[in-house]
Design a protein that fits this description.
heterodimer, A: 293 residues, alpha/beta, Rossmann fold, B: 372 residues, mainly alpha
Chain lengths: 293, 372
């Protein structure tokens, strides 16, 4: 990992902690917008807890009694063949799809199934889509500005003005995602890999506690992929990450040198195997699903 | 390393108005408040510089349309929601004003009755419930804002909450204005049926059909247009405006960034509808008639054409478009009345094919071309 990147990440976090502390000192409350369903409770160690989730589309079970638990600060990789239900799982967590049955909790107190997409985003779950989704007609800077953690209300945004701490935070993020020179470019003109980075940057601006990343390195060059892996590893611990990926090299980079790091294999809507990458790769069922037909 | 690199200018602070725009706004103010009244009221008739009453009425009417085009730009150009039913908000504002004007006729109508002629004709003895406050100017002016605003709020609330988007949304806005038109065509509704309201005499007791009063309405319309332009510019330059554009580009991303798009869409939708309602209220006393044809689907589609011809997402473009298309219309219908619709159709096709950014887009491009 480049020390430069680590330093930059650490500095960003520090600065942000200061900003948050200042905001809290001023207003007395965290600036989450209107929704507070209770603070995130991590006393039981799990940040995300899915239990028996079933989703069916016209009889086809996209998720079949899926149960999954992610610990606070964990970086979890999820793999699985096409149609295994990886994206549907993210849809359920972020409120886009309502499951037919099951439970989904953020921490041990917040019931995700009762919240809407934007509320779920406000309580600290950020999502990166499979296809990079940025605001194409706005500049890179404006994209980050919109993602910046601030009051999401209509009136608040009419009268919103960036303060210098927020400006610094955007500047730091631009440096982190290597888009400093493109700050005033329209996002639609960025390369595919740069858009992926911008979207990741937008996620980080929200300072989410849990990041859901759907194929984050698709379309990136090898070098960009490597840098992304470094970035994610630097986030681990302070954030929890769920990475869905096909690229085994990338997964390898993320779990490198740590056998305790879990990889989950999804198949036909439920968990097929869970364990270290080596274990999973040696698992006969997994090999069968991936190779044998 | 970073000490060597020049600091990247980070925020281009989004300015509310550039100096060039300020100049344009001041020029428009001058034209509306000083030049037009002078040319119409002071310069004697027969002089080359004289502005005829016909021209005052025409420009006044087009300025009302320009307000609608501006409202269309906010909702379509910036938020990406194509409404093909804005005519209903325009007409509702117009009807609210028309009701008051009908009451102002007093006993000067054909039947010499306190009640409006169409009610006498229908043999009604008392006012229907929705005419209760119609003799109060203040109350009716409130209705000019409240009725279109409330309809837009209810319609938008259900449509946006059900996540109706794109062409489906456009179609149900058409259905809405069409349904309203059919309702207003009925005599029982109490809005004068297919004749609507006309033959207005006074406003606040002052005769409308005098040059100073007409000029006053003209100036008022011009000031409203300029005011709405500034309001729209302010909205668009704020973070609110950038969220609207973000909704246009990628609504799901907006949602997963923590914004509630429904609130944003509803806000701009209601603002846009109210602007149209006020435009309708200014239109009625100047044109002298309001009837259900303002709610016809074609009338709403025309508003979209003004915005598209002038250039969406530019604010000034739709205003230019409204003047261009309606100016053309009054010329064409004067000299080649039977060809107007063909011309309008051809214009729309030409703009769609060759000028995706409208007239203003073309001007900006040629300017950049000469500079390069």
């Amino acid at each position: 990992m480049t020390p430069e990147l680590m330093k930059a990440g650490a500095k960003t976090r520090e600065e942000h902690a200061k900003v948050v502390a200042r905001q809290q000192a001023v207003s007395g409350v965290a600036s989450y917008g209107r929704l507070v369903t209770g603070e995130l409770d991590l006393t039981h160690g799990a940040i995300l807890y899915l239990d028996d989730i079933t989703v069916s589309f016209d009889g086809f079970k996209a998720l079949n009694a899926l149960s999954l638990s992610i610990s606070a600060g964990e970086l979890r990789c999820i793999i699985g063949p096409n149609g295994a239900g990886k994206t549907t799982m993210m849809d359920v967590i972020t409120g886009k799809t309502r499951p037919d049955a099951g439970k989904a909790f953020f921490g041990s107190t917040i019931d995700l199934l009762r919240l809407r997409e934007n509320d779920i985003a406000s309580i600290g779950i950020g999502r990166k889509f499979q296809k990079p989704t940025v605001f194409e007609h706005l500049t890179v800077f404006e994209n980050l500005e919109l993602a910046l953690k601030a009051d999401r209300g209509v009136r608040a945004s009419m009268f919103f003005r960036l303060n210098s701490a927020q400006l610094d935070r955007i500047g730091a993020m631009l440096a982190l995602i290597h888009l400093k020179d493109s700050a005033q470019r329209v996002a639609g003109l960025l390369s595919h890999g740069q858009k992926q980075w911008l979207e990741i940057g937008m996620l980080l601006m929200q300072d989410p506690k849990l990041l859901l990343l759907d194929e984050p390195v698709a379309g990136m060059t090898d070098e960009e992929t490597e840098r992304t892996a470094e970035l994610f590893l630097s986030l681990e611990g302070n954030h929890s990450l769920v990475v869905v990926e096909h690229d085994m090299k990338f997964i390898d980079a993320l779990t490198r040198g740590n056998a305790a790091k879990k990889v989950t294999v999804l198949h036909e809507g439920s968990v097929l195997a869970e364990g270290s990458l080596a274990d999973v790769q040696a698992n006969e069922k997994v090999v069968e699903v991936y190779l044998g037909r | 390393m970073s000490a060597v690199l020049p600091a990247v200018p980070l925020a281009a602070p989004t300015r509310f108005l550039s100096p060039k725009r300020w100049f344009g706004v001041l020029a428009a103010l001058l034209a509306v408040v000083v030049v037009a009244p002078l040319l119409n009221l002071v310069v004697p008739e027969g002089s080359v510089l004289h502005m005829s009453d016909y021209a005052v009425a025409l420009v006044g009417k087009i300025m009302c349309y320009a307000i609608c085009a501006l409202a269309m730009d906010l909702i379509w150009g910036y938020t990406g929601i194509l409404s093909l039913g804005h005519g209903v908000f325009f007409a509702l504002g117009g009807y609210a004003m028309g009701m008051y004007l009908m009451r102002q006729i007093g006993t000067d109508g054909q039947y010499k009755s306190e009640m409006p002629d169409f009610m006498v004709f229908l043999n009604w003895k008392e006012y229907p419930w929705h005419w209760v406050v119609s003799d109060s100017f203040v109350a009716q002016m409130l209705l000019v804002v409240l009725v279109p605003g409330l309809l837009a709020f209810l319609f938008g609330f259900f449509a946006f909450r059900s996540r109706i988007k794109g062409v489906y949304f456009s179609i149900i806005t058409q259905a809405m204005t069409f349904a309203a038109m059919l309702l207003f065509f009925r005599n029982e509704t109490g809005f004068g049926g297919n004749n609507g309201f006309t033959d207005f005499k006074r406003i606040l007791g002052i005769t409308i059909a005098t040059p100073p009063m007409r000029m006053f309405l003209f100036v008022l319309t011009g000031l409203t247009l300029i005011g709405f332009y500034l309001l729209a510019r302010w909205l668009v330059a704020s973070k609110f405006g950038r969220v609207l554009q973000a909704i246009r580009d990628a609504e799901s991303r907006v949602m997963f960034t923590g914004y509630d798009p429904i609130r944003y869409k509803l806000t701009i939708w209601v603002i846009s509808a109210v602007m149209c309602g006020i435009a309708g209220a200014l239109y009625v006393p100047q044109v002298g008639i309001i009837n259900p044809s303002e709610m016809s689907p074609a009338a709403s589609i025309e508003m979209a054409i003004w915005a598209a011809v002038g250039g969406r997402g530019t604010l000034v473009g739709p205003i230019v478009g409204a003047f261009f298309v309606n100016g053309g219309k009054s010329l064409f219908t004067q000299y080649f009345p039977e060809f107007w619709l063909y011309f309008l159709g051809a214009l729309f096709i030409a703009v769609t094919l060759f000028l995706p950014h409208g007239i203003v887009g073309l001007l900006r491009r040629t300017k950049q071309g000469t500079r390069a």
